[in-house]
């Protein structure tokens, strides 16, 4: 899996009311398919009336920190954090729990889109079938069916909703607006290497071959071929999702309870070289960005905040960080380091891009190498971008990305 990632201390930000919370929920949510070739996690039905949704965490300060680093990085700073950068980058990249979670979210969104036609809300094409907002001049494109969207708070507390506008407040009565949300319960795929078989967990329900494995209904005379629910011992992920216009809103949050999954060493299954056993236990929140509904998630930066423990290949790694993921990019990580007090008062980005590394701080962009323990200015020599900052030669069409030592540690 390919990532762009960033990290900082999550607990200090006050955005992680996730682990050990006492909120109650309805009877579950629709489960998604497993990530990276895994088998479908079989969640429950949509959330129901009575769901008590905790308030979505405020991730805006984290997003602003990514966009505007404030630290001025020196050799002393790098001497103190270089090992931390290398360790965190390795552990986060090796673990694919984040791809697993994104797969659940994209599958849920796809189910929503497939379940009902999207129609124009308002504008000159009000009521007409649409694909996106461009089909609705003066209006928006949305659907009305959600997985049992329920208001948490507001004057319609516990009532059905399609988005937050169905959960208004009443200032005169001192009632704040509520949130329209659902709970999704996802059973994790576990460590059974057979999970990558497309017919995994399929058995005959009823008929002469009841209980036997099957591929389709033809294998089950007088019965049906169904997919069994994965073993609850595999652990689970509970996600709360806001809903907007029949689709998922940009903020998703919840917890993972000893979620077990496999990471193929090569390809999309364990057949060629085996798999690593991995797990995640702890809280998670993510911001899908403003373009989530209209764009492919693999093309967008998704910002995570996590507080928990990653297990990978027999080792455990405590993570209390934020990281940013872009799936459809060259291999790379972008790490957001928070080195000041209070939280987010002094930050910078460490970037891994292909074979290159760089830092973006308050002074701009410059190159760095953890292996060589030095940083350097990276400037395009020749070509259309001559004189501009760069990370690799790809940033310098018809030129090269050259370096001059800036400092070492």
Explain the layout of strands and helices.
Layout: H1 60-67, H2 75-94, H3 97-115, E1 119-121, E2 140-142, E3 150-152, E4 179-187, E5 202-205, E6 224-227, E7 236-244, E8 247-264, E9 275-287, E10 302-312, E11 315-325, E12 332-338, E13 347-353, E14 356-361, E15 364-369, E16 374-381, E17 400-408
Antiparallel strand pairs: 1-2, 3-4, 4-7, 5-6, 7-8, 8-9, 9-10, 10-11, 12-13, 13-14, 14-15, 15-16, 16-17
Structure report:
This protein has helices at 60-67, 75-94, 97-115, and strands spanning 119-121, 140-142, 150-152, 179-187, 202-205, 224-227, 236-244, 247-264, 275-287, 302-312, 315-325, 332-338, 347-353, 356-361, 364-369, 374-381, 400-408. It has 409 residues and is mostly beta strands. The strands form four sheets. Strands 3-4-7-8-9-10-11 form a seven-stranded antiparallel beta sheet. The longest helix is centred in the first third of the chain and has 20 residues, at 75-94. The radius of gyration is 24 Å and the shape is globular. It starts with 59 loop residues before the first helix and ends with a strand. Residues 1-7, 9-13 and 16-50 have low confidence and may be disordered.
